[in-house]
Every structure is written in structure tokens, then in C-alpha cells.
């Protein structure tokens, strides 16, 4: 007997995942983009097809706010990646059992909620907080004078975001370094490269995907960060994510909120595309034929 | 050994997938049927959209003593946000609104009128508080409490020649000022700058006030959301001027701070809170019991002592109340809301424009 073969008889989980992502992630974003252009109406009084929302956005203070948020996100992502790399390098150099124990220690802050971790920083940075008290005890600061420069500004927001995301940035770099073939490094050293040359020509390029992943892992959420600015940003530490939330909330201007959210998404996608292109083009450029080089 | 990432992806036949889905559906359905009787026997608690701080059982003790279950509270961040959520489909039995947003509830068809004959203490309510919640002779909003917002400052640290909203924008106290994170700041800027009607500004006036606030933002340490955000800093000295409520003033005084609840020359802003029945509520009897409990003299004592607000019930024995608050609110006057330096919060016909202006100030 010959079994009847249906085109749908075999469903690959990989394709199911792609389909699921498109439905729950891609479709809402497409709707959001369409809503920002007035191609979709959800509420009574929503505007029809128009670019007015986008024109308003580019003429408003929100573009400036976005640039400030972008700077915070880039700075946080770069600092996290730079700090995470030596930690991940050290971990990758340890025996597996020890590395796993250290990894648990690094991830230990995640057993408490993000909110509590941020609030604990308020105790440290507040006017009469840990730093002020310590400085006062050393006679470096008047005991009755609040230290006001540490909290409620972009400095406080950035410190907390670096603190919050640094442990996560370690993971992809560690994973990448763990897969690096040590024999390549040894070969470079055998051929006369010093430790730094071997690092920059072998270790760093082979761990580049992990570095890129760490950067993205921090940059994407921080670019839309909402909680930390509320708790420690003060009047002058607001980020773009706060405006998006407010427009969907009390502002109740969903079409303009859709413009803000779509712009945020497009900017992230653009940056990811640039990183993906760099990861694709750099190895090709490095492997280009050099004049005079003899190839097999 | 095959590495996890290299193994061949498993595949499932359509039959296997359908069997799995059927089993899942059956499981979920059976679980629902099995637990349904247990849910049916349980009392459905009242759903109340409420402000943080009003969930304490002493404020509606009479309701609980009548055998009702503790209500479920959904806390609000602002009136406008609540209206928006109700319009978007949020459901509840009651909402505790502020008088100047009553119109938003009414015009959007979100509320049902009360049968005041079923509220035994309705006639005890101050007549001047009832008006805003009436339409076509029907009472849509039953007032529960009233109070004011104003500038609160530390008299030991702030040099005040004349009490006015200008204190919130005073360059001399840069970094020591806290604003409330609400679009009311746009109104305050309008009152300070003397616009014709701070509650209904023109587009140009709104743009001017946005610019004014954006420029003065440099003096502000932060925008507070809850009392607890700024009270500790006010008590420790980091904040010296804030826009707030009398409860914060009372707590600061209790902590030994020479706090003053200002009577700005432009007038303290009076607000009234009241309960509205939301469309579709199924728990009418409980709604009436809850609202009547809020009008009890015991609740009035709690509200005055703990919050420094005035009770809507005008027949409360004043000797039971804190004399400081009685004097501050002029509760011993025949019409305490009609005294000088008090202006009632008004309806904002263009509330969204104000909200948007405020967001632009924050974004600037």
C-alpha cells in the first residue's frame, strides 16, 4: 500500500518558529507602522492616510530626545562590551567547572528584580547616600551638605544601565571565546607573533560574533529603556522610551505614539543591519588577495 | 557524540500535531469544567479603580463589616490615563475620579447615574460638592473627599516675599525643586504667567507655556509620581520647594521640618474626588454600600487625620478632627470651599493638548 503524501505532512519546528515569530512579532510591528501612516484606524478620531505624524516628529523635540537616548544606549553598550570582554576572556581560560561556578556568580544579581537593583543604587547615589556618607567620613565632603550631582541625571541612568546589563554582555562573548580554537593562537605565536598580535589577529576576530551579540544584547533594550529614567533620571534624564510610553498612556495619542515606536524600531533595525553587514564584509576584506601573495 | 546544535531537526506528522492539539484542548476544557463550581461559590469582589493610599480598610470599614469581601483595587496613575484605559476596554465597578475629569467620563458614555435614595448619607454631603457630578438632574458622581494642591516649601531654607506659584520656577532654588509629573504644570505656568484662562489656553498660549516650562525645567531635580518620591528628600533637605498635597505637609511637619503649605496669590487648587458607577457594573448593591461607607464619620476622621483632606460629609463632629487641618481647610466655616485663595480645578476641554504639551516639556 502506498501512503498518501500531503504537502503538510512534515512540519519542521524551525519553520514553525519562523512562522510564529512573523505572526506575533512581525505582524504587530507592521500594523504599528501602518497605523503611524494612518493606513489603519483603531480608535474613533484616528487620522486617515497621512505623513503628518512623521513630519511633526521631525520638527519636534522628540528627535533631539532620541539622539540623547541613542548616545546613552551606544555608550552603555560600548562600555558593557568593553568591560565584559576581559571577564569573558578570564572565564574562557578557566577549567569548565570553575568557569561555570564563576558564571553563576556573575549572573547572581538576576535573582532579584530589576526594580530592586535600581532602587538599591538610589541608596548609594542619593543626596545623603553611601557615597556622600563615605566622603563625609573621610572629611572630603561636608556631612550636612547633600551630594546632588550623583542622582537624577543621565550620569545616574547610564551607571545603572551599565550595572544592569554588564552581566548579560559577558554571556555571548564567553560562548564565542569558548569555541575559539586555541591551536590557532598557538600557531600565531609559533610564527613569531607576540601575545597582543595573536590576540588582535586571531582571538578578537574569531570572537567578533560574540562581541557583536553582546553589543546588540545591550544596545537594543537600552535604546528603548523606560524604567531606569523614571527612577533615577529626574527631570533631566528622560529617555525616548518614556515618551513612547506616555503617548500610549496619559497622552492618549496612539497614532503619534506609533510614529515614535516605529522610528525607534527602524533605528534599531538599521543599526543591526550595519552590524550584520560589518560582520559579513570584514572577514571578506581580511581574506582579500594581497598583491604579490602566492595562492594555491 | 552528537552535538545538540548539529542534530537533525525532529519532525512531526500532521496526525501527531493534531493529536497533541486535541489533547491540549481537552485538558484545558476539562480543567475549566472541574474548577467552575468552586468559582461559582466564591463571592466576586468589587472592582475599584482607585488612587494609591485609599486602599486601606479603615476608609471603608463599614462596607467590610457588612460582610462584603475586600474589594479588588486597580491603581490609577492619572485620571486621563484611566479614561483612556476604560475607552480601550478596561472594565470595573467603580472609579474614583477627580472633579475636572468628570466630563471626560460623561461624554465618553463610561458611567451610569446613581439612585441617591439608596445612599443613606447622601443628604449629608456638602451641597457645593454635588454640582459637578450632576447631569439632567441625576447624580453621576458621589463626592467622597476634597482637598487642595499647592506649593509646599521649607520656611527655614526658602526666602518667600509673597506666596505664589512663582516659587516653583524660582532660579534661586535650582536643583531643589520637585514638580508633580502631571500636565497640571501647564495650568500652573498659565496661572503664573497670567493667561486669560489657564484651563482653556489657545494653541499659541500652550506653545508659550511649553517653552516657559522647558526653560524652567533646568531648576527641577525631578518630577515626582508618588508622595514617597519626594517626601524623604524634603525632610532631609535635598528638596526645598515642591508641588504637593497637604498629607505631605503634615508628614514633613511631624518629622520636624518647618514646612509651609502655601496659599499662593493665584489660589490653591481645589479638587474633589468622587465615585462613579461604570457602565456594565453588575454589583449595584455593593456599589451603594461601598460609597455610603466612604461617607461615614469614621472615614472622615481617617481622611482628616491621615491625609489632611476634607470629608464630603458636612455633618461630621469637628471636635473629633485635627484642629490644624480644620483651620487649614476652614472646615469650621459654613462653606469652606468658598473661602479666599481657593480655586476649583476646572474641566480641561483640550486635556490631550495639555498632556502633549507636558510630554514635550519632558522631552525637551
> Percent range for helical residues of chain A?
55-70%
Q: Which structural class is indicated by helix and strand composition of chain A? A: mainly alpha
Instruction: Please work out how many helical segments of chain A DSSP would assign.
Output: 13
| Intertermini distance of chain A | 55 Å
- Write the element-wise H/E pattern of chain B from the N-terminal end onward: EHEHEHEHEHEEEEHHEHEHEEHHEHEH
Please provide a written account of the structure.
The complex is a heterodimer of chains A (about 300) and B (about 375). Chain A has helices at about 15-35, 50-60, 60-90, 95-105, 115-125, 130-135, 155-180, 180-190, 195-205, 210-225, 225-235, 240-250, 255-285, and one strand at about 10. Chain A is mainly alpha-helical and about 300 residues long. Chain A is globular and about 70 Å long. The model of chain A has no long low-confidence stretch (mean pLDDT about 85). Chain B is α/β, with parallel strands linked by helices and about 375 residues long. In chain B, strand 6 and strand 7 form a beta hairpin. In chain B, helix 6 crosses helix 7 and helix 7 (about 205-215) runs parallel beside helix 13. Chain B is globular, with a radius of gyration of 25 Å. The termini of chain B are far apart. Mean pLDDT of chain B is about 85; it is low at about 1-10 and about 20-40. Strand 1 (about 10) of chain A pairs antiparallel with strand 1 of chain B.
Amino acid at each position: 500500500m502506498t501512503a498518501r503524501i500531503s504537502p503538510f505532512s512534515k512540519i519542521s519546528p524551525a519553520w514553525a518558529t519562523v512562522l510564529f515569530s512573523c505572526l506575533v512579532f512581525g505582524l504587530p510591528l507592521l500594523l504599528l507602522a501602518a497605523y503611524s501612516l494612518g493606513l489603519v484606524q483603531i480608535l474613533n478620531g484616528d487620522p486617515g492616510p497621512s505623513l503628518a505624524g512623521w513630519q511633526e516628529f521631525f520638527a519636534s523635540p522628540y528627535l533631539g530626545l532620541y539622539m540623547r537616548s541613542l548616545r546613552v544606549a551606544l555608550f552603555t553598550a560600548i562600555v558593557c562590551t568593553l568591560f565584559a570582554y576581559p571577564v569573558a576572556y578570564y572565564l574562557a581560560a578557566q577549567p569548565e567547572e570553575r568557569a561555570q561556578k564563576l558564571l553563576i556568580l556573575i549572573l547572581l544579581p538576576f535573582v532579584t528584580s530589576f526594580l530592586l537593583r535600581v532602587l538599591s543604587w538610589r541608596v548609594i547615589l542619593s543626596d545623603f547616600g553611601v557615597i556622600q556618607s563615605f566622603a563625609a567620613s573621610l572629611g572630603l565632603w561636608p556631612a550636612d551638605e547633600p551630594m546632588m550631582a550623583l542622582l537624577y541625571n543621565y550620569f545616574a541612568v547610564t551607571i545603572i544601565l551599565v550595572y544592569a546589563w554588564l552581566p548579560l554582555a559577558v554571556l555571548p562573548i564567553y560562548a564565542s571565546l569558548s569555541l575559539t580554537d586555541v591551536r590557532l593562537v598557538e600557531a600565531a605565536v609559533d610564527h613569531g607573533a607576540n601575545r597582543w598580535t595573536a590576540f588582535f589577529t586571531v582571538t578578537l576576530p574569531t570572537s567578533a560574533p560574540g562581541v557583536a551579540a553582546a553589543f546588540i544584547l545591550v544596545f537594543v533594550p537600552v535604546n528603548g529603556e523606560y524604567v531606569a529614567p523614571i527612577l533615577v533620571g529626574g527631570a533631566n534624564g528622560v529617555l525616548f522610551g518614556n515618551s513612547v510610553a506616555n503617548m500610549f498612556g496619559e497622552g492618549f495619542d496612539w497614532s503619534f505614539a506609533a510614529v515614535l515606536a516605529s522610528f525607534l524600531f527602524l533605528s534599531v533595525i538599521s543599526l543591526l543591519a550595519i552590524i550584520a553587514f560589518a560582520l559579513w564584509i570584514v572577514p571578506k576584506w581580511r581574506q582579500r588577495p594581497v598583491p604579490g601573495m602566492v595562492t594555491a | 557524540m552528537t552535538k545538540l546544535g548539529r542534530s537533525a531537526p525532529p519532525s512531526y506528522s500532521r496526525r501527531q500535531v493534531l493529536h497533541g492539539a486535541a489533547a491540549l484542548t481537552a485538558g484545558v476544557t476539562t480543567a475549566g469544567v472541574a474548577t467552575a463550581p468552586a468559582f461559582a461559590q466564591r463571592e466576586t469582589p468589587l472592582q475599584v479603580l482607585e488612587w494609591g493610599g485609599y486602599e486601606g480598610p479603615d476608609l471603608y470599614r463599614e462596607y467590610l463589616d457588612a460582610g462584603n469581601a475586600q474589594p479588588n483595587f486597580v491603581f490609577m496613575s492619572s485620571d486621563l490615563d484611566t479614561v483612556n484605559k476604560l475607552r480601550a476596554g478596561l472594565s470595573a465597578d467603580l472609579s474614583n475620579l477627580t472633579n475636572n475629569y468628570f466630563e471626560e467620563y460623561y461624554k465618553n458614555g463610561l458611567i451610569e447615574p446613581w439612585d441617591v435614595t439608596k445612599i443613606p448619607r447622601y443628604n449629608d454631603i456638602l451641597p457645593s460638592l454635588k454640582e459637578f457630578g450632576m447631569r439632567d438632574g441625576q447624580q453621576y458622581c458621589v463626592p467622597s473627599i476634597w482637598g487642595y494642591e499647592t506649593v509646599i516649601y521649607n520656611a527655614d531654607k526658602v526666602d518667600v516675599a509673597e506666596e505664589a506659584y512663582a516659587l516653583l520656577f524660582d532660579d534661586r532654588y535650582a536643583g531643589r525643586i520637585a514638580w508633580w509629573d502631571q500636565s497640571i504644570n501647564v495650568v500652573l505656568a498659565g496661572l503664573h504667567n497670567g493667561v486669560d484662562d489657564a484651563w482653556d489656553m489657545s494653541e499659541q498660549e500652550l506653545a508659550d507655556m511649553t517653552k516657559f516650562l522647558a526653560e524652567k525645567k533646568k531648576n527641577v531635580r525631578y518630577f515626582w509620581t508618588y508622595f514617597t518620591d519626594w517626601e524623604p528628600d524634603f525632610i532631609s533637605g535635598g528638596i526645598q520647594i515642591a508641588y504637593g498635597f497637604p498629607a505631605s505637609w503634615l508628614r514633613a511637619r511631624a518629622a520636624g521640618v518647618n514646612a509651609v503649605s502655601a496659599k499662593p496669590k493665584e489660589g490653591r487648587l481645589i479638587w474633589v474626588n468622587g465615585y462613579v458607577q461604570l457602565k456594565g457594573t453588575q454589583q449595584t448593591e455593593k456599589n451603594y454600600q461601598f460609597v455610603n461607607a466612604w461617607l461615614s464619620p469614621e472615614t472622615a476622621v481617617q481622611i482628616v487625620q491621615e491625609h489632611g483632606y476634607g470629608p464630603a460629609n458636612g455633618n461630621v463632629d469637628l471636635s473629633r478632627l485635627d484642629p490644624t487641618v480644620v483651620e487649614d481647610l476652614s472646615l469650621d466655616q459654613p462653606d469652606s470651599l468658598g473661602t479666599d485663595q481657593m480655586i476649583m480645578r476646572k474641566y480641561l476641554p483640550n486635556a490631550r493638548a495639555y498632556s502633549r504639551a507636558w510630554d514635550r516639556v519632558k522631552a525637551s
